[in-house]
Write a structure and sequence with these properties.
Elements (H helix, E strand, L loop, with lengths): L1 E7 L20 H14 L5 E4 L1 H6 L1 H9 L3 E4 L12 H19 L5 E2 L10 H7 L4 E2 L19 E2 L17 H6 L2 H15 L2 E5 L17 H8 L5 H11 L2 E2 L4
Parallel strand pairs: 1-2, 1-7, 1-8, 2-3, 4-5, 5-6
Helix pairs in contact: 4-5
Bound molecules: zinc ion.
The site of zinc ion has 6 residues, from loops.
Length: 253
């Protein structure tokens, strides 16, 4: 089983960018979502869209459109600020309000949650339980995540896996790692991990499918450009190959 997930956030929501001036640049949200919907439709695949409250606020019709295409709608916080910088009560109110709002706008029930930028915290599952989420995909197979306490609720966990063992494990499932690894190696890793773990989670973002000409005029810090926009030129082709080679699903059907 290959779970294909898209974190539906603006490119300037990255924790690497501190200034809000970047919001003045275009977000190309509609263009990229249309591209993704078309690709998924043509290859007969399904995906889960982890939606930011602020994206739903700006593009309600787009969220409805994604739902009408038969994809799952899940929640990815309101503003993509790291959970370590929020308190439990604040995040509870945010989840409660925006989960309802996204359900109203999309016409679909929201079951899933993913924290912004893997910012998993010890209190997260208390909030998810109170807000009636059925599953969470906030954990990455990173060492620091193993230090957190066990989930005592009946909330299913979908952990994003790496490839390899212990210190030799390499991330492959999303962002720059997915973009940088040649496709034939990615395909091997996905097949290998699917056998080993029974499922593989792939995650991506709308901005990873930008046309490189769109961002030429953006004045951004070099490290940000490297991390977020390098290797995007071939990413549309890579996604196409992936969607043709594998059958992808949403987490919750
Ligand atoms: Zn995100």
């Amino acid at each position: 089983m290959i779970y294909f997930s898209i974190d539906l956030e603006f490119w300037y929501n990255s924790p690497l960018l501190k200034k809000t001036i970047y919001k003045e640049y275009p977000d190309y949200m509609e263009e990229t979502v249309d591209f993704l919907l078309k690709k998924l439709k043509n290859t007969n695949n399904k995906a889960t869209f982890f939606v930011l409250g602020s994206v739903c606020e700006k593009y309600p019709k787009l969220i409805r459109k994604i739902a009408l295409h038969g994809h799952e709608i899940a929640f990815h916080s309101y503003d993509h600020k790291l959970l370590n910088n929020k308190d439990k009560d604040e995040y509870y109110k945010e989840c409660l309000y925006w989960k309802n709002e996204i359900e109203r706008v999309s016409g679909k029930k929201v079951y899933g949650h993913r924290a912004p930028a893997w910012s998993y915290t010890n209190w997260l599952y208390d909030v998810l339980e109170k807000c009636d989420f059925k599953y969470d995909s906030s954990k990455n197979e990173l060492r620091f995540h193993k230090a957190f306490k066990e989930n005592k609720y009946n909330i299913k966990e979908y952990i994003v896996r790496n490839f390899g063992f212990g210190y030799f494990s390499i991330p492959f499932a999303g962002s720059i790692f997915f973009r940088i690894i040649p496709y034939f190696i990615l395909r091997f890793i996905i097949k290998y991990n699917e056998k080993k773990f029974k499922n593989v989670i792939i995650y991506t973002h709308p901005w990873e499918f930008f046309d490189s000409s769109w961002i030429k005029s953006f004045k951004l810090p070099v490290f940000f450009k490297l991390y977020n926009f390098s290797f995007i030129k071939n990413n549309r082709k890579k996604l196409n190959k992936l969607l043709l080679d594998f059958k992808t699903e949403s987490f919750y059907k």
